[in-house]
Amino acid sequence: MDRVPQIDFAPFLSGEFSEKDKIARQIGAACEGIGFFYLIGHGIPTEVTSNIFAAARRFFSLSDDLKAAPEILISSKHSRGYQPLNARFYEQTTAPDLMEAFKYQQELPPDDPDILAGDRIQQLNKWPSQLPGWRETLLGYFEAIHGVSGNLLRAFALALEMEEEYFVRFYRKPLTQVSLLHYPPQPPAPHAFGNRPHLDETAFTIVLQETVPGLEVMTRSGDWISVAPVPDSFVVNIGDYMARWTNDRFRSTIHRVVNRTGEERYSIPYFAIPDFDTVIECLPTCFGFDNPIKYEPLHVGRAIQRKFSSDYI
What we know:
The protein is of the alpha+beta class. Helix content is 27%, strand content 19%.
């Protein structure tokens, strides 16, 4: 499959088993193919998506000094808040990704046990004080997209011949994160990226794109194809954790962002990361005599702890 299919999720949300099964099969085929699909009919009003993009523009239009204020600046010890331009380096290159980000998760109170423990990835969000109502907009979007995520978990389970609520049990207190991303226009240099080729360390990602293209996915033949914005849609892609769960039946596919449009690009990914104590093991429907298990069990929280500071210097 060398194209990204479009799937209407509305029939799945109707609750009829026959419709759920039909859509789950379509989703399964996309995940076994290119590992990406467009999701329409997801149930989130346009007003909600318009508001979150307006919020992103409000924040990224602030001065660099305000965005990089110590109280909201991200660090290797605190992965919530503002990540400046040129902050992400990788071992294989000396050139940073040309993007800036604001990262947040579900809102937890200061006395939450995982916050007090200080070693279970969960952290307090950092909010800028200069933007009245901004926090509420971001948390409202999180709640809306989290609902879509729950229904996708059910669709994935049915596609994999598992009980419908199988994956939901691993998302009681997830490490899920939302990122507001801003990609300025980039130079035409061949090795310049908004976000260089990578796989997502998550179960799956739900990406909201505005109107400027730039997201590209690598096909099985090694070609790059554009995943251009489609109105009122999300882009869903499989991540490494789901690939492990399914013994690579569902594909975690290399993708990148290249913004050579001359325009500002905004996107908002939701990374569906399971609970800290989730242990990812191959599903019983995804291995057999001629398809041995490829991966050892993986403890999600410990895996993230090991990589917690790897993107920053």
